[in-house]
Amino acid sequence: MFSCQGYGLTEGGPISAMVDPDESCRLGSVGRLAGITEAKIVDHVSGEALSIGQEGELWVRGPGVYVGDDESNALSFTSDGWLKTGDLCYFDGEGFLYIVDRLKELIKVQRISELEHLIACLQGVVEVAVVPFPHEEDGEIPTAFIVREARNNLSEIEVMDYVAKQVAPYKKIRKVFFVSSIPKSPSGKVLRRELMKQKTSGFASRL
Question: Which residues form the AMP-binding enzyme C-terminal domain (predicted)?
């Protein structure tokens, strides 16, 4: 008897499994693809396929994958039937699948701090706060709120390109808003919910 790992989804059924004791020795892997399921690792922003060993979102397709017909479920599928699992994964050179994290869990405190530190190094940035902002298709996207120096012309594209060159695809800044100030509590803590309210209420100006 041996213990093994596997991976599956409600919409996709069994995706991968280990089938013998030798495979079960691969710590961290959930096995090879099961049956005739197709899978690929993609940049979840661009949809571009990534290479072996690169981390990205796992997309799967096959006869066992259920394509829903309601609006919310449809957002999880591409027009050609790929299911966007929302899991950050990679394949090794022998076809074994490894689950790294959930994409929506990646924009957490440590990653927010990393992005804020990068942007703060840009010339012309006085203050910055990064917020995991709700997004219809991707759940949450990293959004930067920036206070610029007076008469500085730093642009949204410059910020996004600068960050994209230094972080993994799933960490890229997807939106930038330039604001006059970053709301804080009396203790100096950034009030991220207030920033989100400003954005949805139209107080933040996108330049």
Answer: 114-189
Report all structural domains of the chain as residue ranges with CATH numbers, in order of start: 6-103 (2.30.38.10), 106-201 (3.30.300.30)
Check: pTM over 0.70? Answer yes or no. Answer: no
Residue corresponding to tokens 């706060």: 129
What are the angstrom distances between the C-alpha of 204 and each of 106, 112, 150, 191? 25, 20, 17, 14
Over residues 25-76, the pLDDT tens digits come to 667 788 888 777 889 999 887 889 999 999 999 998 887 776 655 555 656 7
DSSP 98-159: EEEEEGGGSSSHHHHHHHHHHHHTSTTEEEEEEEEEEETTTEEEEEEEEEEPTT----HHHH
Asked if residue 204 lies in contact with residue 195, where contact means CB atoms within 8 angstroms, the answer is yes
